[in-house]
Amino acid sequence: ESLSLEDSVVEVEPLTVTEQQKVEITSSENGAVCSASDSSERKLREDRASGSHNSVGTTLLTSQSIILLNEDMEDVVQKFRGCKYTAFAHCISADTSSEKNMSAGVAVVFKHHFGKPHHSEFLNKYLAYQTTRQEEAGVYSLVTKAKYSHKPTSEHYCKAFKHLMCDFKERGFKRLICSPMGCIRDRIPVELFASEIVNFQRWTGAIVYIVTHDEQPKRLYGGLPHSDFFYYLNHQIKVHDSLMLKLDLTNLKEIIM
Length: 257
Description:
The protein is α/β, with parallel strands linked by helices. The protein contains 7 helices and 8 strands.
C-alpha cells in the first residue's frame, strides 16, 4: 500500500497543552535549561499554533520526547549551538582527508560551522566528537563507513550508534539534534534508524529533535516526495516506540510475578 499525501507541506496536529507541558517538564527535570534553545523551542510551538503553512511542522511522538522538525539544519544549528546541554549528530566516512568527505547533505552544514573532525577528535573508529567552546553545543560524527563512496553496513551503523549513546550519556547532554542519520544518502532503512533512535532516547532520557527538509532530487527519499518520507519516518518511530513500551511492560510483569 503506497503512501501519499496531497500537500507538499506536512500537516500535523498542533501540540496540545498537555504535550507542550510534557516537553517543558521533561526539559526541566533533565536540567536542560538553556535560555537560547528554550526560547527556540517556545518559538517552534508558537509558530505551529499560528497555523501558518510557512511554520515549522512539529510532531511529539507517543509518550517519548522525540520531535520531528521540518526545517533546514542550517537554521537549527544557529538556534541551538549556544546550549552546552545540546549535542548535534550526523554520519560521516572515515576518509576525512578526501575532498568529497562531508561534501553533501547536512554534513556540509556541520563542516561550515565546526569544520571536519581532526584526528585527535576521533574517540574511536566509530565516533568523533567536536566542541568549539565550553558553553556551546557538542557535535558527534558517527563514522559509519570507511570511504565516502561506500555504503555503511547495518552492523557498523549500530555500533556507531551504541558508542554515541554511551558518550552522550557520560557527558551529561540532555538534548540531541540530528538528521535521519544515514537514511537519505546512505540508504540506511528508515526502520533501522527508527529503532536506534528510540533505543537512544529511552536509554539516555534525552529530548531528541530529528531535522529534515525537502531536498532534491526525490531519489534521496527512495522515490517518495519529502512529505511522504516525513510521514513514514513519523510512523516508524511510533511503531518502534510502541514495541519498546510493550517490551518494558512485559519485563515489568515478569519482575512482579
